[in-house]
Amino acid sequence: MTAISLPDGEHDVVHVFHVAPAAAQSLAEGPFSDIEAALGASGLDRAHVDLFALADLQDLGLVHYLTEGLGVDPAALADDRDRLAALSGHVLILAPGAAGPGTTLHPDGALNFVGSYREFGTGDPAMFVPGERPTDATPAPAPDSPEPRPEHGRFPLAALALGLAVVLVLVIAALLSVGS
């Protein structure tokens, strides 16, 4: 496979590799050095390297994981959206900070390079673990945006609680009047 050079100062690019089915289990269960060997690089920061089954994303999908979980700019995915959505099996993702400055990757046959995608903006992306549902998928408002609007889900919940309280009071009153 062709060498992939990561330029000095690259701090906002996510690299995606599709893992060959024959290598997926050994890479997922083996030592981290096996992943480094498959990438043809050493000294990677394991905190920024993710290897997982796409099935772990459930109905979220890889495109949504990249945009919402890792902060990849949706425009950067435009040309590869269909190809990313069609992937199955396992993927290996190098998040920003996975490799040192000027690292060159020499992936072996276990990894098929899918693409490199720039993050949106300059802020830190939200953390997301494949296989787990995000606890709060609401993005933070942009610093120059107007005040956030109130959430629309609170009023129906309060009305339901008030309605249940009224019904409970009526049932208690009816029971007390029958007992008298």
Report on the structure:
It is a single chain. This protein is an alpha+beta fold and 180 residues long. It has two domains: 4-118, no CATH class; 151-180. It is 32% helix and 16% strand. It is built from five helices and six strands. The chain has helices at 21-29, 32-39, 62-69, 81-86, 154-179, and strands at 4-5, 13-19, 49-53, 90-94, 104-105, 111-118. The strands form two sheets. A four-stranded antiparallel β-sheet has the order 3-4-2-6. It is elongated, with a radius of gyration of 24 Å. The chain starts with a strand and ends with a helix.
State the secondary-structure class: alpha+beta
Report the portion of residues in β strands: 15-25%
N-to-C CA distance: 87 Å
What is the strand arrangement across the widest sheet? 3-4-2-6
- Tally of extended strands? 6
Order of helices and strands: EEHHEHHEEEH
Total count of helical runs of at least 4 residues: 5
Helix content: 25-40%
Shape: elongated
Can you give the mean pLDDT? 80
Largest sheet: 4 strands, antiparallel
- Tally of distinct domains: 2
Low-pLDDT sequence parts: 122-143, 149-154
Rg measurement, Å: 24 Å
